[in-house]
């Protein structure tokens, strides 16, 4: 393509209200082939949902999501904000563990990684708000398809920024995707992006960004 892009991260429900329909998938495939592009990751996967789903509806939705990823040859699904992480309940951890167990059944079946993004509580999240919490989740599940989405903005805001290199080096095998966001999500800072890209190069990170 004209601007030199090769890889994309997409939000399905930004593309269309019904992105999983067969004719839409066919359309996306044609565009990707024509423009010589690859989708490296899918994000905003629970964008349409404000409430937790019944077990039956969750399974139906996850089946559509993972089949969609497989059809487009996507190897990573980024998992950020979900209604499960905003739910008001004393059993929030138990609810989310059940949620992740279900997701990982599909991840294993379709051989697609699920990268968990820490999302700050300023966005209404009550669970998995820091990288340390996500790492703790990975340790409890010990599932090869469950990974970390490393978010620079979140780390600088909610963790000790001086420990960033140490955390990244120590957990690099668990990190499957990176977001170069900054703390002020509405601001585009090119020098900030270049700085963190150089850092990723020095840390020998070779997966998707």
Question: What are the SSEs and their pairings?
Answer:
Blueprint: E1 7-10, H1 12-15, H2 22-35, E2 38-42, H3 55-71, E3 76-79, H4 92-110, E4 113-116, H5 131-141, E5 146-151, H6 152-158, H7 164-171, E6 175-179, H8 190-202
Parallel strand pairs: 1-2, 3-4, 4-5, 5-6
List keywords for this structure.
209 residues, alpha/beta, four-stranded parallel beta sheet, two-stranded parallel sheet, 8 helices, globular
| Pattern of helices and strands | EHHEHEHEHEHHEH
Give the helix/strand class. Answer: alpha/beta
| Helical segment count | 8
Mean pLDDT, as a whole number?
92
How many strands? 6
Strand content: 5-15%
What is the 3D shape? globular
Biggest sheet, spatial arrangement of strands: 3-4-5-6
Low-confidence stretches: none
Described by strand count, sense and barrel closure, the largest sheet is: 4 strands, parallel
**Termini Cα gap:** 19 Å
For the CA atoms, what is the radius of gyration? 17 Å
Q: What share of the residues lie within helices?
A: 40-55%
């Amino acid at each position: 393509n004209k601007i030199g892009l090769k890889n994309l991260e997409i939000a399905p429900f930004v593309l269309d209200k019904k992105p999983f329909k067969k004719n839409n998938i066919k359309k996306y495939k044609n565009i990707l082939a024509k423009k010589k592009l690859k989708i490296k990751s899918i994000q905003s996967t629970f964008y349409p949902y404000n409430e937790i789903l019944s077990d039956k509806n969750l399974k139906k939705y996850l089946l559509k999501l993972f089949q969609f990823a497989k059809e487009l040859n996507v190897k990573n699904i980024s998992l950020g904000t979900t209604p499960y992480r905003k739910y008001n309940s004393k059993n929030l951890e138990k609810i989310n563990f059940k949620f992740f167990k279900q997701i990982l059944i599909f991840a294993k079946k379709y051989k697609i990684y699920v990268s968990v993004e820490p999302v700050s509580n300023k966005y209404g999240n009550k669970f998995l708000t820091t990288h340390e919490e996500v790492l703790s989740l990975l340790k409890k599940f010990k599932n090869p398809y469950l990974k970390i989405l490393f978010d620079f903005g979140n780390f600088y805001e909610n963790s000790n920024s001086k420990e960033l290199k140490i955390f990244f080096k120590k957990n690099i095998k668990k990190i499957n995707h990176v977001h170069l966001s900054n703390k002020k999500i509405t601001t585009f800072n090119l020098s900030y992006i270049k700085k963190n890209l150089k850092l990723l190069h020095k840390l020998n990170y070779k997966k998707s960004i």
